[in-house]
Amino acid sequence: MKRILSGMQPTSQLHLGNYLGALKNWVAFQDDPNAQCLYCVVDLHAITASYEAANLANATREIAAAYIAAGIDPDKSSIFVQSSIPEHSQLMWLLATMAQMGKLERMTQFKDKAGKNAERAGLGLFAYPVLMAADILIYKATHVPVGEDQKQHLELARDLASTFNTRYGVDFFPQPEPVIAGVAPRVMSLRDGTQKMSKSADSDMTRINLTDTPDMIAKKIKKAKTDAEPLPENLAGLDGRPEALNLITLYAALADKSKEEVLLHFAGKQFGQFKPEFIDLAVEKLSPITTRMNEFMDDPAQIDSILSDGSEKARSIASEVLAKTQEIMGFYS
Ligand code: TRP
């Protein structure tokens, strides 16, 4: 039996990269009869960077709304908020005693986020990967869908699982496997095919947000950077053409086709012919998600009730794993 766990931070705008790189794959996993899926909104991670306290609860609901709108079914998967399960933080402390400072110092995300002034970075930012390991191990998750940029954190979770097992002479925590899934694990900017699509990019024209209207989607695709060549008939023909490769990848992921199939359809055509079809496809696939997300946001009570059911299911696993961990570690009870 697989246990799949993943999470997203409640920080601003979700975009096409979050949908194609993560959510769309999460939806597919819940139809695996051998998998149990747990999807959380990782609000405790969000507060490791500066954030608006007045917005946190709503941003948390919005991510949950996006999960459900994208097709995560609360009857099949548990959807919950990280901070409502105190066992995540409790296990984090236990794991923190086994996490080596030297390994945490080598985390590239910490180095990027702390920047030049690492001395002033908060302990929470430094310990971020330990909390992430706790998110995973508190459910004994076996599979963790993540982006490339999170693989190093997952390596630390695997390391902590085996350190624990070795130190206490048990075979308790499984080794969580990273799952890099889908046709479009890396979605690039519409303006520069060598940069990741990102919520922090200055220009909104670089990304398609899950809240964009059909008009905005059309405008952004029309203005997306391309090159002067017609589309090739095979993947090799996209070498050295990062923007063309990105657009074909996005089309393929949205259409549930392979890139090869998409190229066969467009071979020899110009972007002037490709773009209108791409706009229709993007609007067809994304508009229903945006509409559902808005409907959910208009009915926060419904989101809250889904989150409360989800956390009940998650907590029953987490409390058992924590109790067993404490027992193995020799705590008084
Ligand atoms: N660090 C992850 C990210 O920024 C989010 C995250 C936190 C996560 N806890 C997790 C992802 C546990 C997978 C499993 O993308």
SSE arrangement:
Layout: E1 2-8, H1 16-29, E2 35-41, H2 43-46, H3 53-70, E3 77-81, H4 87-96, H5 101-105, H6 108-114, H7 123-137, E4 143-145, H8 151-168, E5 177-179, H9 214-223, H10 242-255, H11 259-266, H12 271-297, H13 300-329
Parallel strand pairs: 1-2, 2-3, 4-5
This protein binds tryptophan.
Average pLDDT, all residues = 96
Number of domains: 2
Residue windows where pLDDT falls under 50 for at least 5 positions: none
CATH architecture of the largest domain: 3-Layer(aba) Sandwich
Count of alpha and pi helical runs: 13
What's the gyration radius in Å? 21 Å
The dominant shape is globular
Overall SS class: mainly alpha
The fraction of residues in strands falls at 5-15%
In helices, the fraction of residues equals 40-55%
**Can you identify the CATH superfamily of the largest domain?**
HUPs
CA-CA gap between termini: 31 Å
CATH topology of the largest domain: Rossmann fold
In brief:
The chain has helices at residues 16-29, 43-46, 53-70, 87-96, 101-105, 108-114, 123-137, 151-168, 214-223, 242-255, 259-266, 271-297, 300-329; strands spanning 2-8, 35-41, 77-81, 143-145, 177-179. By secondary structure, the protein is mainly α.
Task: Offer a few descriptive terms.
binds tryptophan; two-stranded parallel ribbon; globular; Tyrosyl-Transfer RNA Synthetase; 3-stranded parallel β-sheet; mainly alpha; Rossmann fold
